[in-house]
Batch of 3 targets.
Target 1
Amino acid sequence: MSGWQTIESDAGVFTHLIEELGVPDIQFEEIHTLDADALKALPQVYGVVFLFHYNQSATSNTENSSTPKDGDWDYQAAEDIFFANQTIQNACGTQAILSILLNQDINIGPTLAAFKEFTTGFPSELKGESLSNSEQIREVHNTFAKSSPFVDESTRPATSDDDAFHFVAYTVVNNKLYELDGLQRAPISHGACTKDEFPEKIISVLQKRIARYPDGEIRFNLLAVTQDKRIRARELGDEETLEAENKKREEWKFENELRKHNFVGFTIELLRGVVKDKIKTGEYDAWVKDATDKAQARIAEQQQKRRE
């Protein structure tokens, strides 16, 4: 693969991605409700990654605005913490992840530690260019892209008809709640915040952001970056949780392997076998007629619903 490929907003994808980058003892957990208790129930939370439909009128700011719609620009923080401008398509998921990990006092492994050291002191634009040009990080990122025999979306320009989605990171650094979005000019501060206060304050920030979208918009996804839940389970001797988490890891591993494979050829061969068997047994014509009748019935039902 060349360039940066699109990856899914998925806890299993992100967890195994950072493991491949050498980050230990961290996992991602999908949050299904905007409820602070959902975050409080997790072991130590380092931040959240928020995926949303990119609606210019609902984003934190426009290119020419003097202030964000929520919070305040913190230009000094752009120099003091890891903040990178996004300089390439499809990298925003991994960039949001790094915006959290590289701003926490945790073991991020040798690959990311070397990258952080290399970019320390760089302006945000150059940090973004350094990330875009990191072959090691890009190669790991791309191993989690879905295999497809069709159009490579990264090779064509975006159009106004495309549904654009974007990832941003929220995390606490130096007792402030920051929104770290590579498309913005600087980190956005949402005020003083301790790590203990983070669950309550981040939910409030996200609720305000989502409220700017039209009614019925549901294309959001929230992932918490948290300590590996198996660590606390081992400390507490909670065998049930440990078993459940190990099983979840196995499921994630299986799903990630499936993402890497192209099943179109297999499906075509399977269909050929079915057709050949139907012809051999004399059931082909009846099989096709039955399928056609069912398709027409579904179309008629849909048309009726539209009229109603």
Target 2
Amino acid sequence: MAKEMQKASMFIERNPGDYENGDVDKNLDDDGRVKRTGTWLTASAHIITAVIGSGVLSLAWAIAQLGWVAGPAVLMAFSFITFFTSTLLADCYRAPDPVHGNRNYTYMDAVRAYLGGRKVQLCGLAQYVNLLGITIGYTITASISMVAVKRSNCFHKHGHHVKCQTSNNPFMIIFACIQIILSQIPNFHNLSWLSILAAIMSFAYSSIGLGLSIAKLAGGGHVRTTLTGVTVGVDVSGSEKIWRTFQAIGDIAFAYAYSTVLDTIKSSPPENKSMKRATTLGVSTTTVFYVLCGLVGYAAFGNDAPGNFLTGFGFYEPFWLIDFANICIAIHLIGAYQVFAQPLFGFAESWCARHWPENKFITGEHAVDVPCYGVYNVNFFRLVWRTAYVIVTAVVAMLFPFFNDFLGLIGAGSFWPLTVYFPIEMHIAQTKLPKYSLRWIWLKILSMICLMVSLVAAAGSVQGLIQSLKTYKPFST
């Protein structure tokens, strides 16, 4: 539902008088907004598109840390928990009744309706910090993919023994420049074409990675895999094994920490039933895809699986296909960055406009005639704030350009509050579960277990960042 914040801005506001017009009514829902036409099938597609992203790139590495037993078990556990809490969240789309109540257009609206108080602010903080972390993570991932294209061509030309060292920083700057331009698009609904392109790219590079892993596995060659993953005393020390295990859990949490885009589902049958059906198909499909990518990737690379199996150069040939896959990643993340940044932009701009409505710097629009585009309304606050935001995310990415560590930290930070805690608390409030009843107890236990898992995953990622920073020199190759 976090993406519902973005989708909410897509609805066309109508004047009250419009509702009296019978010709308009047939195009509007009972809440006066544009009639929703989505079905459980389209919602399933949205979920699959949202889930299958850059998180899939680290799954082979994560399985390598956990092994053949714990790896699939953790994947399935996260799958089940995500599915279960998503069904609870679906019932919170309307309040107070899940079928006939008032619609909640954003995650925060649902929390406000069922929990209220300071938990609304905590939900908003969790969401926006998560969005900030994701945009930084995407800057890192996109630059790594662009560097991989350059290195792939270098390896093809000079041989695999050449180091072909390349700095990420110039590519982060290029990525940031592109985002500064795209960030000036004022409304999220103007970016629908970018979201469609990003979704196509996501499926393309994920499928290429899976296909290359299958080809490598079919080609033979011995790789070392074990039931428990990387071996203490051979691959890692005892402490490294523990920290890497925690970090791997965070990477898997990142892969499953998705936001359901279900607010365009039509109201008949009831939205919560369609959402649950969509969640079943969407989560089961992505779980099958994740298990394939993770397990086949581990079988192909063994305990030496790279952190990102498309940029870690487990594959060298065909170099053109690897280049294409990494270009797809970069294009996907260019669009995905805006998908996650736009709610932050909108929140800050609407908050400032409410508090300083007379300030022309914040609210003033200046029409500029742009060749080949037409009239574009420039808002100086939007220009300065969005540009500054992109620059800050790029600078932080240059300071901490560590793919697996950062993905694990984002996953650990977002999984428990947004995927587990708030859906469970809203369900308890909605159903008025008696305190200390059997269902109340096991829901609380599930929430506490997920909290502890998130804490250890965050600890593993932070430790990984600290270790990486010991040898890393910022703003250098």
Target 3
Amino acid sequence: MVRLTVHLISKSSNYSKACRSESLQQYLKKLTHLNFSNKSIEDIDDLSMCRNLTVLYLYDNQISQICNLGFASNLTHLYMQNNNISCIENLSSLHKLSKLFLGGNIITVVEGLDELKSLKELHVEGQKLPRGEKLIFDPRSISRLSETLCILNISKNNIDEIWDLAPLQKLTHLYATDNQLQDIKELETVFSQWSQLRLLDLNNNPVCVKPKYRDRLITACKILEDLDGKQINELSRQFLINWKASKDAKKKLDDGKDIKEQISNPLTTDFHVGPQQPFAHDRSSSRTKPSEYGKPGVTFRTDQVQGDSRGRRSRGIYIPVRTGRL
């Protein structure tokens, strides 16, 4: 097993150049950058003498656990991508950490970031997940990161929704390529809340082939400058914004007309009113007065009307109905 120790640091070429003028202890106290990438390291030993360390490169190794970094209160950049890390842990003392690179590990849950009050960049792309699983996000960590995080890389993690990321309203860059995102309405809703988003890369997601995909996202993201590697022309953006505003206004007007018609004609919304059939007419209950001088004849309804021998009405009314041609 290869461990990152003070002894291993003393064998580095950088210390060899400085050893003539200072001791190892002095060298370690002054050390700000430490690069042990691609050294087959499996574990991190006690490095508490490196109290001024600000940048640590440990990518392309075989580290399985983040540990023994509690001393590094001045650390701002930590590069641990392409290792065997399965859990994000033991980072609570890194209050100055602004960039964290953990891509290419075997992490299944983004968690353990609650105390990282200065984190601006988080890279967790390409996790080696079990078949059929996706990367998920702990709400507590996302809530805390919402105050600081600007750049997020979650590409190649089988992610099919981003509702959990909605609180990250200070994001300026999102890299989410090669996932399973497909709900355009969900993306519009979430991205419209990220008022500072300037770069968005969703290449190789199912949503990219949806109708009006690019137009809809440009409209939702008011200051977006780059979508899927293509710059956004300001004139085109303004045209799309105006087009959407016009479309929404027309829809609102049409909806208002529909509601007004429903109020004015309530029966037409609930019943099918077919053509009215004429009422049956009993010829025996009517008599027709012949037309005179070419005038149309007049039919008098005498339903429920009885007359005496002199032709006077005893009850009912006469209803004149014109017949014939004019």
